[in-house]
């Protein structure tokens, strides 16, 4: 299998694609991004990196940060997390409030907004928001091996100015006692986590611990093997909001998308993959990112369902 050729074919097809989706417009600073971008990076288990298109251009990782926030939160409270967040696909939009009322303020899973707001609350314990954010950024830098990773403050401000629905979710959960800290502190932490900027190469590197059964490529253990498997299973079942089933069907890899147009996908033991194209489909997932991963899965045979 020649990954360079496969990537070149995918980049070619995505460059020429006419149906590119629509960039997220509800966060003003994301609405300005050119939908012509497409980038891909693949890191294989033996440590080789392959890139194509705009793999070195930074973008807002948005909800992909939820994977890293979940990893940190599980490290802090372990299985106690599951009394405050569920583990079922939501079947609802990423920012839905309806389900939250029916389920007494307990979010369906850690990858919808309400769930990640709970993760921010967990990660805030004993810290000020600035410190909790610093810890998350440090963690992502450690995973990636790149100290240049930082928060895009313009995006964070833009989210803070327009995040009324996330505010509603947080206050709602607070009313049920699911959040322990003041909603504004939790939201500040959440918005900044979403505003981490990375490029495809960095993101693919950040996912290596999930490809390697919880190990950092330097040999250190990031999470136990069982936890890595559990995070991956949540990515597969909940990583694409109410289109998670469709993504599993088409691509067959655990993946987490963000409204910045990025997707992190992992094939355990084989590859950590990042794709980015800012145009979103109706479910809020990258239109071309999903298609590119579908093409990659076809060309490589990579899937968690193949023997
Ligand atoms: N910061 C975004 C929000 O809270 C994240 C959504 C996403 O990437 O799905 O609305």
Would you give an account of this structure?
The structure is a single chain. With about 300 residues, the protein is of the alpha+beta class. The chain has two domains: about 5-60 and about 195-300, Beta-lactamase (3-Layer(aba) Sandwich), CATH 3.40.710; about 65-195, 3-Layer(aba) Sandwich (Beta-lactamase), CATH 3.40.710.10. It contains 14 helices and eight strands. The protein has helices at about 5-15, 30, 65-75, 100, 115-125, 130-145, 155-160, 165-175, 185-195, 200-205, 210, 225-240, 245-250, 285-300; strands spanning about 40-45, 50-55, 60, 150, 195-200, 255, 260-265, 270-275. A hairpin with a 4-residue loop joins strand 6 and strand 7. Helix 5 (about 115-125) packs across helix 9 (about 185-195), helix 6 (about 130-145) runs parallel beside helix 9 (about 185-195) and helix 8 crosses helix 9 (about 185-195). The chain starts with a helix and ends in a 7-residue tail after the last helix. The mean pLDDT is about 95. The structure holds glutamic acid (GLU). Glutamic acid binds near residues 94, 95 and 194. Glutamic acid (GLU) binds next to loops.
């Amino acid at each position: 299998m020649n990954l360079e050729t496969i990537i070149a074919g995918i980049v070619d097809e995505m460059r020429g694609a006419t149906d590119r989706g629509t960039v997220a417009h509800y966060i003003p600073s994301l609405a300005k991004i050119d939908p012509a971008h497409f980038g891909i990076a693949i890191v294989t288990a033996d440590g080789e990196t392959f890139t194509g298109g705009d793999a070195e251009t930074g973008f807002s990782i948005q909800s992909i940060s939820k994977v890293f926030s979940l990893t940190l939160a599980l490290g802090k409270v372990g299985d106690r997390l599951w009394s405050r967040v569920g583990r079922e696909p939501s079947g609802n939009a990423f920012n839905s409030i309806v389900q939250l009322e029916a389920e007494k303020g307990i979010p369906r899973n850690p990858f919808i907004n309400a769930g990640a707001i709970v993760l921010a609350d967990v990660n805030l314990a004993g810290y000020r928001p600035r410190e909790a954010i610093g810890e998350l950024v440090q963690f992502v830098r450690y995973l990636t091996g790149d100290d240049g990773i930082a928060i895009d403050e313009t995006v964070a401000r833009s989210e803070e100015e327009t995040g009324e629905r996330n505010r509603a979710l947080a206050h709602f959960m607070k009313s049920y006692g699911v959040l322990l800290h003041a909603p504004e502190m939790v939201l500040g932490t959440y918005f900044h986590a979403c505003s981490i900027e990375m490029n495809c190469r960095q993101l693919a590197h950040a996912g290596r611990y999930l490809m390697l059964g919880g190990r950092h490529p330097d040999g250190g253990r990031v999470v136990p093997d069982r936890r890595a498997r559990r995070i991956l299973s949540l990515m597969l079942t909940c990583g694409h909001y109410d289109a998670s089933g469709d993504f599993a069907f088409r691509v067959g890899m655990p993946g987490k998308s963000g409204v910045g147009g990025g997707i992190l996908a992992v094939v355990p033991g084989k590859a950590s993959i990042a794709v980015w194209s800012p145009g979103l489909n109706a479910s809020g997932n990258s239109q071309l990112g999903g298609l590119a991963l579908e093409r990659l899965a076809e060309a490589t045979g990579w899937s968690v369902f193949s023997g």
